Amino acid sequence: MRSKLYMLVLDRDSRVALMALIACALLLLGLIALAGESPLRVLAILIGDGFLTRAGLADALVRSIPLTLTGLGVALSFRAGVFNIGVDGQLLIGAALAMACAPLLGPLPSVLALPLLLLVGTLGGAIWGGIAGILKARFGANEIIATIMLNYIAIQMVSWLIRGPLQEPMGIFPRSEKLAASLRLPVLFDGTRLSAGLIVAALACVAVWFLVARSRYGYALTVTGKNADAARYGGIQPAVIAFSVLCLSGALAGLAGIVEVSGLHGRLQEGFAGGIGITAIAVALLARLSPLWVPVAAFGFAGLYVGSDAIARLTAVPFPLVHVIEGTIVLAFLVLQIMPKAKDL
Amino acid sequence: MTVPVLELTRLSKRYGEVTAVAGLSLKLEPGEVVALLGENGAGKSTVVNMITGMTRPDTGQIHLQGKEVHLDTPRDALDRGIGVVHQHYALVGNFTVAETLALGRAGPGVLDRKVLHADVRRVAERIGMQMDPAALVGSLDVAGQQRVEILKALSRKVSLLVLDEPTAVLSPEDAARLFDVVRALRADGVAILMVTHRLADVFAVCDRAAVMHSGHLVCDLPVADATKQGLISAMISGDTDTAQIPGSPGQANVLPDRPPTPVSDTPIRVSVRNLKLLRANGSQAVQGLGFDIRAGEIMALAGIDGNGQSELVQCLAGLNLPVDGTAEICGCRSDGHWTPRLLRNAGVAHVPDDRRRYGIISDLSLSANMMLSHFFSPRYGRTVLDRARARDDTRRAIDEYDIRTTGPDQPIGRLSGGNQQKLVLARELLAGPRVILAAHPSRGLDIRTIGAVQDILRRQRDAGAAILLVSADLDEIRALADRVVVLAAGTAFGPVAMADTDMAQIGAWMAGHA
């Protein structure tokens, strides 16, 4: 990669990322010992089941698809200094809007219907992100609060939709009807749940990388995130950037939502992608906001999730350990990013 | 013989190659008001910082009440009875006056507002100040906020009060009220060091005037013996002898031979009419400003910093709007569409005065910084960035301007200020601008580079650019300008052709003295 603008941004951040990982690993080992297990055995299971078996690997890849897409969205917005905490809501609205349009797309041939379905999902997420964007750009609202609040609205809306207009005809469970086969992302490998969503995520990585590292828009994002006054001086309008990046970030979350439904679950139900938004932040931070590292970080987290499942089955260490890891990583990042600033003072 | 409150002995401070303060000695007796005068960069701020514990002197001693002290932190200074009112206030807008004074001083537990309010009134009355302890700080005007800062300083036991440019943002009436407070403090035996650039302040309230020029104390004399002209010439040229001799037409007034002012039939590029601008804190920066700049002309905007120069340049660059009057550049009008993007497209280049804030992005490379001003021109591509071209432009700038760097990929934050400034200049002049807003273009540069920058500006003028040169450096103005406007005390003097004025006149205007 010859993009030096991009490499230099990572310089100090990579050290921070590394230190965050080390701090996290140490804490993890301590916690496992506290839970009364041998840290070595637990680590062996975590890595063995999460990354080294065929089933574990496939599962990790399945889980890494939405994490990659949402992680890319978070990385984009964080680069611009805009903190999109509303990935969960944008993901839900994207999935819900796509599901609402699914009956219209059903009769079309799959080659046409599937991309359209994904497009509608993307649009849904973009709209939900765009609402927070308008609130920020037009009225100066804090995007963190706006996006968090919009999460709750989205959760309640989906909750209502799958009990009302979008509920399956049987009307028993609060869930939508299954998607028509023509609207499902095909499974890539027999015997796994790994869908063509993987390809979508890979394409998104390339597209976001291009946007960040090569395009004028990406330059404007970086400049705004690093020095909003200088951006204004150069003619860039930070408000426009904030709005557009929230739309883009939401779009990627919406895409993640419909890919999750079309590639994995087949229908909309409550909590089908709970907590992805927070993990996406950890993914983006660990990837140092670099689009090409996002899939790596996402895969790492996905493997941890799969491995933690196995740990919970086989040992006395409970599953929430993985949430502790996530929280530690985010916290370690915050602490390590504040520390050098404190020294400057 | 009383013990001096503050005695500075041969204080020196260097920053790298630059000597900010050189062997300065100064004494303040109890109840004495001393004005510390000087141009920008004369070293006044460094002296204040050393007295208030913000920076440590390299050599020399500070004695307080006869005892040598080492002030390592602002806290040390506060604890030893040195109060400061900085030019930029540190206040919490939605605290009341009483709460502000309790901040950092009240113990744990419940605030007893009655006691607090009584305290505020007592301190205020002692110096004859009107102050409502329950007023919200954010609701006060600039003068009111300054009074809160003074009260804040006085609510501790203070034997020395440092006022940093106290009148810079005040109206004449508010300044008069401030002087009453200063007189009351003097009667109380408090020594006051007043950093200022306004001669009116000196003669209104000060007992002694100390003038600094490039780090040296060039004169220190009772105000009764000083004259305006003398102080001006000491400030401008460091000329020590003339401070006391009234009306000496110093040699500094002789203008060098310069080419005749360019013909006045070139098109008007910049036009400013009856302009009124506000500072970020809402106080009035300048009003009734009007001038034109023609193609092929350098208009100098002279004046001590903080008299509205930044606001004017930012307005002309599209970063803020006037509250009254209009500005017009190359067909764009401030009452129509007026944005940095539009003005840049019209050919406006802007060398900002606050480089770290506006001019550069420290974390990004030189070549990434090169693109900042040309973001909306097709120079580096419409959608995909032409990084190779940016790197080529940067490499050429590095050669041409002799920028000390490892290459176009080095983060600009690692460069020295002077080298950063050179890149900013190179960037702004890259595309052959029609209008150049140059705010302190040679600040932080070494002598050789200053000469080069001045040559570049002259060449740009000869190539037909209209240039607004903001400077507080009279030598630079003399070397470059065709005409000059002086901003001081909220109003404008001029514009006047350089051929029709002299340095003494400009210096007097800069000191707010018509």
Characterization of the model:
- The complex is a heterodimer of chains A (345) and B (514).
- Chain A contains 13 helices and no strands.
- In chain A, helix 3 runs parallel beside helix 7 and helix 4 runs antiparallel to helix 5.
- The N terminus and C terminus of chain A are likely disordered.
- In chain B, helix 6 links the parallel strand 7 and strand 8.
- Chain B is α/β, with parallel strands linked by helices and 514 residues long.
- About 3% of the residues of chain B have low confidence.
- In chain B, 49% of the residues are buried.
- In chain B, strands 6-7-8-3-9-10 form a 6-stranded mixed sheet, with helices on both faces. A 6-stranded mixed sheet of chain B has the order 16-17-18-13-19-20, with helices on both faces.
- The chains are: A mainly alpha (345), B alpha/beta (514).
- The interface between A and B is medium-sized, with 24 and 34 residues.
